[in-house]
């Protein structure tokens, strides 16, 4: 898919789609509606209706200790509508980012509803397409619920009491039940996915995510902190990239990996998309790290966790020649917020995030089967991705550049 020069990637896609972006957006919303129906059915299959009285002490205990926290975890706004895009953002408000990436893969490789026999809705007369869509729909639910499971466990490990304006699951149900719920949901998701290739891809995502979390948690240990404080900048950046690729990058690779497994996509395109998702993961993590220093994007707060060294801004500003291994807490906060290179560093990293997002999208466009497919991907990514550009613009204005 090629687009004209002299304009931004989003504008290129809109122009190439020949004014059909609104029609593509309708498909995105339709696919999101399928997801919500499937998610409700999945949740109903796991839990007991609250309107039906428990028939025994055992059933009552199971409802309180499993069904209710599962319903709260899956039904939370985390990653859904808790941070709706600003007015005018692409893609609408009700198309969750990562499950929509699963559907993008289906639309790219099997077509759109009006392309008869090539990826229409179930019942369009194509047995292969209908079977593939059934697997993809289960994969999309699995991705959505897996993210909720990760959040439940991550909030415990990070000590986060609030997630996007909602109490964390461990706050409402306690740490033991929240941990059990997250773990139980992972098992339920793998069973629900059913397709061996999809299950394998999800299992690998779980492994990568927990590996990354282990490395992240290590930044709170005195040994890793001392090693990072003493390391040259290049090694600190390499550490951050490896960590971000395992944690945030996995959250971008997981939906596409599961969809590509379901659709049996050729290896060459898998490699291209995997590399692009790694770049999107790095861009997203840069955005997360930077918003800790920009109140307009960080919920009105400045970074509060100065006990870990996983934030890229911290790692950029550390000076092995002058920093002490014990630099942490208020000392680290004063050091970072008072650093003369803080603002230039924020601007430089924001520009890096914009570049990574742009290059990732351009890589994806090269495997798009149609302009409509490119528009679908663009609408999906830019629901949140446009904030990366806005952050860069804000920092540019703040710097007077």
From TrEMBL:
<protein>
    <recommendedName>
        <fullName>Polyprenyl synthetase</fullName>
    </recommendedName>
</protein>
<dbReference type="InterPro" id="IPR008949">
    <property type="entry name" value="Isoprenoid_synthase_dom_sf"/>
</dbReference>
<keyword id="KW-0460">Magnesium</keyword>
<dbReference type="InterPro" id="IPR000092">
    <property type="entry name" value="Polyprenyl_synt"/>
</dbReference>
<dbReference type="Pfam" id="PF00348">
    <property type="entry name" value="polyprenyl_synt"/>
</dbReference>
<dbReference type="GO" id="GO:0046872">
    <property type="term" value="F:metal ion binding"/>
</dbReference>
<keyword id="KW-0479">Metal-binding</keyword>
<dbReference type="GO" id="GO:0004659">
    <property type="term" value="F:prenyltransferase activity"/>
</dbReference>
<dbReference type="GO" id="GO:0008299">
    <property type="term" value="P:isoprenoid biosynthetic process"/>
</dbReference>
<comment type="similarity">
    <text>Belongs to the FPP/GGPP synthase family.</text>
</comment>
<keyword id="KW-0808">Transferase</keyword>
């Amino acid at each position: 898919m090629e687009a004209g020069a002299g304009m931004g990637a989003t504008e290129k896609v809109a122009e190439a789609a020949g004014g059909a972006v609104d029609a593509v957006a309708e498909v995105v919303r339709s696919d999101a509606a399928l997801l919500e129906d499937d998610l409700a059915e999945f949740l109903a299959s796991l839990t007991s209706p609250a309107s039906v009285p428990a028939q025994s002490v055992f059933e009552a205990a199971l409802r309180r200790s499993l069904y209710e926290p599962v319903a709260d975890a899956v039904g939370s706004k985390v990653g859904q509508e808790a941070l709706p895009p600003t007015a005018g953002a692409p893609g609408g408000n009700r198309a969750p980012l990562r499950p929509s990436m699963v559907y993008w893969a289906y639309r790219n490789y099997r077509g759109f509803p009006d392309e008869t026999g090539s990826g229409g809705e179930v019942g369009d007369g194509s047995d292969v397409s209908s079977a593939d869509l059934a697997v993809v729909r289960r994969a999309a639910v699995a991705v959505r619920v897996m993210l909720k499971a990760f959040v439940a466990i991550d909030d415990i490990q990070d000590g986060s009491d609030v997630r996007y304006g909602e109490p964390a699951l461990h706050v409402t149900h306690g740490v033991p039940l929240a941990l059990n719920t997250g773990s139980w949901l992972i098992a339920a998701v793998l069973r629900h996915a059913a397709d061996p290739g999809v299950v394998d891809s999800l299992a690998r995502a779980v492994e990568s995510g927990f590996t990354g979390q282990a490395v992240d948690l290590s930044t709170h240990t005195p040994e890793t902190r001392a090693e990072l404080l003493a390391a040259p900048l290049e090694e600190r950046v390499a550490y951050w990239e490896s960590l971000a690729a395992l944690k945030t990058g996995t959250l971008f690779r997981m939906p596409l990996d599961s969809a590509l497994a379901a659709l049996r996509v050729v290896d060459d395109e898998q490699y291209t998309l995997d590399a692009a998702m790694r770049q999107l993961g790095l861009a997203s993590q840069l955005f997360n790290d930077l918003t800790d220093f920009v109140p307009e994007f960080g919920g009105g707060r400045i970074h509060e966790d100065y006990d870990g060294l996983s934030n890229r801004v911290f790692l950029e500003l550390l000076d092995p020649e002058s920093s002490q291994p014990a630099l942490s807490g208020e000392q680290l906060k004063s050091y970072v917020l008072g650093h003369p290179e803080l603002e230039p560093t924020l601007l430089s990293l924001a520009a890096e995030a914009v570049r990574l997002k742009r290059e990732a999208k351009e890589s994806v466009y090269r495997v798009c089967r149609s302009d409509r497919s490119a528009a679908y991907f663009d609408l999906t990514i830019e629901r949140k991705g446009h904030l990366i550009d806005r952050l860069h613009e804000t920092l540019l204005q703040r710097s007077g550049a």
